[in-house]
Design goal:
By secondary structure, the protein is of the alpha/beta class. It contains 34 helices and 32 strands. It is elongated.
Amino acid sequence: MNSKYFKIVPLILVLIVVVNCATNKIKQKPLAIHEPTKPHHKDTFPKQEYSHLPTFNYATSTSDEKKWVDSIYNALSLEEKIGQLFMVAAYSNKDSAHIKSLDKLITEQKIGGLIFFQGGPVRQAKMTNRFQKLSKTPLFIGIDAEWGLSMRLDSVTKFPWNMTLGAIQDLKLIEEVGKQMALQSKQLGVHFNFAPVLDINTNPKNPIIGNRSLGEDKDRVTDRALALMIGLQNNGVFATGKHFPGHGATSTDSHYTLPVINFTQEHIRNVELYPYKKLINKGLASVMVAHLEVPAFETRKGYPSSISNVIVTDLLKEELNFKGLIFTDALNMKGASNFKSPGEIDLAAFQAGNDILLFPENVPIAVQKIKEAYEQNLITEERLTHSVKKILHYKFKAGLSKVKPIDLTNLSKSINNEETNALLYKLYENSITVLKNKLSILPIKNIEKENIAYLKMGDDSKGIFLETLSKYAEVEEVYNENLDSLLLQLTDFNKVIISYHKADGAWKKHDFSVKELQWISEIAKRKKVIFTGFVKPYALSSITSFEDLDGVIVAYQNNEIAQTVAAEIIFGSIEAKGFLPVSINEEFKVNHGLKTETINRLGFTHPLNVDMNPTILAKIDDIMQITIDAKMIPGGQILVARKGKVIYQKAFGYHTFSNKTSVKNSDIYDVASLTKIVSTLPITMQLYDKKKVTLETKVGDMLPVFKGTDKENIIFKDLLSHYAQLQAWLPFYKQTLTADKRPSDKYYRKLYSEEFPYQVAENLYLRKDYQDSILQTIANSKLLPKKEYKYSDFTFIILKNFIEKSTGKSLDELSEQGFYAKIGANNTLYNPLKKFDMSVIPPTEEDNYFRYQTIQGYVHDMAAAMEGGVGGHAGIFSNAMDMAKMMQLFLQKGNYGGQQFFSEETFDVFNTCYYCPEGNRRGIGFDKPQLGKSGPTCGCASMTSFGHTGFTGTMAWADPEKELVYIFLSNRTYPNADKNLLSQNNIRENIQQVIYDAIIK
């Protein structure tokens, strides 16, 4: 063997020179990332080039590096040199006996490294510090983290499977995944991430690769693996291409047996080895050799590739000219351990050309076997030196010449950073794939015309999918054990969204049951169906026909972000961008994907994705907790959106101070004067568009009751600017009370009748003719003596009457049909008890002066209550999400969900402050930022911003310049409205200041 070895060395050197020259020529060119072949997508993507190739170069070394390597190597005994070849399995979830066994291997066998498996990040960090301190020669630390540390460790952010990444077209995102994986790993002292997987998964039934593969197309796999490698290695962690020479076509699992690759040499070179050639030329640090039987190269039957000199040395090292570190796959796997006993398998692997022996079963025996082979000249000094010095060179490049203990301070928080969480949204936004979109059923557009049912299938949780769908439209969940009964339930629905959920595990089975397949088929024959599979794409291959399905979406994984993004695609707040990484059937082949339309509905993302600092936003939580603890409010809802994305939505506290019912995001609040801008004002804008009113229209012309009064000549612009000298309000209700201040029988009844139709509270109805009395009282009231800014509810009481007179429809009907139904504000309405249970409505007051009861589900404002709960100035109940939709509609100048509700020009007219020079900050109906020190905002909002506040403790504000929406809802008036601590302490304004502080400049 020695003679043969020395004969081939000169040939190898010649080949190295030739190939290196060729390689150097290649490196002079920028690396082009090839786009998928034969795309089925209607759009194509430009090729991407990397000008920043990995800084790691294993072919060069500094004088300091050589000096350190030589000094360490020369100080090692033969046994210690052999010990460097071993990387032993370590678990941070095992007991002290396991730790002591590793201590012994480190101190006695002088092993070269550890590969960590299951455990937790902090526990692993502590073990790493312990072992590095104990080891004479610094240890390599590696981990199998194909989708980040979460592949092995608990309590760590999980990146998507490789199969999911394979659907992404933007390779910069995949590079960012590699970067974040590297940053995670470095914080745990990890030097090698055994990734990326280079296996081309050409066998859909592959039992061990599958989701671990980036796809079935060699170009797609190569491009994405290269991006991962660049992300890893540019950020200080060595990448490892695996499983050489290719595990993607196997039908068995090498953990349990020896899989066979029955391809020709030509096929293997053209397909399986394709990504290795590309990545090796671009600086791949290491390769892991699999336990496979490859008859095309290794003629010995049943002989594992991991111990084959032909495959490791001749093919990988010589033909592919790979100079980096070579790892075996784990030697405890049956694909290897069934072939030779412990020690023998290690020796054979080293003789085949591997540098590092991974997961040996018995290190002392393996060391002894290799030592004996050395002493018998079966292993030369040169061979041993080659691998050991290569290992030491890598240790120097990894910074192990100066070992620093891992900093445990805030380690978990640092690993699970906000950048990673923000990236996850981008990854799923770019991966989820639309396979079918018959008659453009996606996105669902005119939701006011839809009646949508939802059916969940699969044995895993639907998570927040239905909750997110319901933020866009009314979606009713249906369920029945019997198909015929279910079909009967679906009779009145015109669309059915079916989602299929299976456990989010890389090796979990995602197979449909026969029953599920039958039900999908039968429902699709009768209804328009949008099917979303939160499963690996191969699972859909069991659907024999997609003909009757109208929309088909592959979401790849079942988690909250994937569910959120899928719902966004269904309703058009984002477009679909993904391409299939593998083929499902003849209709849906690799590279297939359809682009969908976006229709400017609010979406959801992480704050960083819209340049907002989540750490600063978290201060809102602290302010709200202080506010609730100080009993300024029992609870509330807060929402922040930027650039069309909701980035903060939380519910705080309870409905009352009894702390029995927690506030939910879906609960609905009495929004008080926000009614003015989310109900009355947008309808008025539509009338302005239709020229039913102008800025100069006079009140006397709007409503005859004002003819001949001192209000007759008030113009519309002054009326809406609160510049009309109107009184702030009048306590209309007092005129309807008895001497002892109780509701008079003259005006009220306990039961509904045609003569007493207006319900002001539970079991309390106002007489029909009193509506005219309210308006007449306003007409008869005296104007204020001075023309100056004075906020008045009269403005919107007048507007309500004008709107209803002009249209012949009631205000609540106009609001619901004209806006709320169309934008999916399904929790926004007057008189909410007609639709919702009282339990989802926080009370606003314990009334002891008018209605003498708990006011819950009935409008708090007395005048609006006397109008039957439908006031132009108050009466709307809503939640933060729905309020945000209306404010976003304003931000988009009348456009939402692909519909234009009023013209952009009209919005600009109404969002103008006409009397700012006179000290009046108001727009037309909108409140505007203060002109001095005090006012409705934090003083940080732009002058183009607009919104309103409400008496019950509410606020809605939007800023076009910062593309911000801020919603604050509470019931600060409970149990009574006497002290407005919320306003006195500027809570709403302080929270708004936090929001502006969170903007990343």
